[in-house]
Amino acid sequence: MDDVGDVGDVDGRGEDLRRTGHGPLAGFTVGVTAARRADELGALLQRRGADVLHAPALRIVPLADDSELMAATKDIVDRAPDVVVATTAIGFRGWIEAADGWGLGDALLERLGTVELLARGPKVKGAVRAAGLTERWSPASESMAEVLDRLLEEGVAGRRIAVQLHGEPLPGFVEALREGGAEVLGVPVYRWLPPEDLGPVDRLLDAAVSRGVDAVTFTSAPAAVSLLGRAGERGMLPELLAAFGHDVLPACVGPVTAVPLQAHGVDTVQPERFRLGPLVQLLCQELPARARALPVAGHRLEIRGHAVLVDA
User: Fewer CB atoms < 10 Å away: N or C end of the chain?
Assistant: First the structure.
């Protein structure tokens, strides 16, 4: 994921903020639900002045010893699919490493070199090429929907398609392929599970419903599902949804990540490019725009989260 680079002026006062040592997110508190690359996202936010409340809503469990992954790998080695869809870089690398551990690495790479290999985005493409393979195609949008459209346009009837799962089922994707007549083989490389320590998640939930955070970021759909599920377990889901509907900005890295929130009627904001940097840049635009400004005794007071700016 790209760094945000220069954020630029925010609401016309970015240069004033930089001169006084305040970033465009000064005064705002942002919750981070990510498990992977949470430190990187937190650093990007803090660099722009935000306070960060880190609460990983899930953990990634590799399945190097999992019988399902081994069975799927052997199946692919024994009977080549027509298409293999690689969805995440960490998952693809984990798959190759697990196959090496079982003594199937060379056979798997040889087999993958003979199929139509599709990579969901540039990071996956990098992992594919690092393994000595070449992808046939990669969508510009990094969207599984675009991958699905391409496959359906090509025609999937009678084709065998292996899909590297990225921690949660892909029911819409898989069902559409099966309805089109394809045989679909799932490759479960790792799973998302709730965090072992729920304390940080509970603190984030408490902060959200009490408006102690100004935004909550989501970089995966499972994180959104996990946070909503924990809110439900604690009997505070209606309060959380109300907070997201008014005072706490839910910011998602992309449309797939936003689906669980949208299913609950929550409107989210998303950057045009599905990366950490553009996500932070979006917050640098959205949060200051939501700040309340008041003229007081000839001065301009701006309420920004837990802070107040006087004349910028």
Answer: C
